[in-house]
Amino acid sequence: MSNYLRSTGTLGAVTQRSGDPIAEATRQWCEHGWADAAPGMSAITSLMRAHQIALARAEGALKPHGITFARYEVLMLLEFSSRGSLPMGVIGSRLQVHPTSVTNAVDRLESAGLVRREPHPSDRRATLVAITDAGREVARAATADLNTKVFADPGLEPHDVATITEVLERYRRDAGDF
Amino acid sequence: MSNYLRSTGTLGAVTQRSGDPIAEATRQWCEHGWADAAPGMSAITSLMRAHQIALARAEGALKPHGITFARYEVLMLLEFSSRGSLPMGVIGSRLQVHPTSVTNAVDRLESAGLVRREPHPSDRRATLVAITDAGREVARAATADLNTKVFADPGLEPHDVATITEVLERYRRDAGDF
Asked: What is the dihedral of CA A117, A118, A119, A125, to 10 degrees?
């Protein structure tokens, strides 16, 4: 922590004590009369920061494979599909991402030779995305690295791993994620 | 769900049954012999999707105020600082974001008139970022909306709100977030 922050008044002092910026924000929320929103602010902000940490780790493991986590998810969806291909729209709804994000991910995967666009056999308005052999190789190698470097030891005790999955399943279900 | 997915083999069928793509991925992980990494994959992927949901809600509440959640965090850090200003480097370390992200957020806030850059009084190499009166107004109005529309009813039962905060505090602490 810089000397500047150390030397400033209340905020600096409290930050020194608690160390956790989210605990500090919670204190501020309560002081400002927003106590009813403080627990939610704390939970949602925790989610944002935890995501930042998890994403950095996942992208660190994926970097040697030349893909982002968003592109990895698209690859795995195709890898696990029975035909090795899915319509663009299905990819978007399964990953709950905006069509433009799917288009962007597929563009990048296609120029790397990992997927290719194909005409849909029965629906002329739809486009299929098919995983290539090179795509399957990257999917497998990237998964091996992600499993070893992130998922097998995700930075949480086994009990917390189960709790997070369970609580966030309720959150996702209520939000219409599936 | 599209007819295409409904009509495909195992994946479509299982997806129909469980409905949850993360449960389906967990099943696939176990089937492929990656059972030891399956719980971590499930927890981390849950975090990614929950973040997507939370971010969309927060940015929905912030949109009328013309700021993103990243810029909101910078504004609030300045709003809560005792002098109404902080060095660029302190903003980055408090928010745990990359210097280029801080520069980007500050650029956008500055061109909207919500912050201004100032020379540091004692460190010629450092730049201070100060919140303006307009910035304080936006911070207050945005917080009121976020509190009402997202934080007061964050989409989790009170018990789950506390659990998420607590588990992710351990995760963040172990990752060096504070």
From this structure: -20
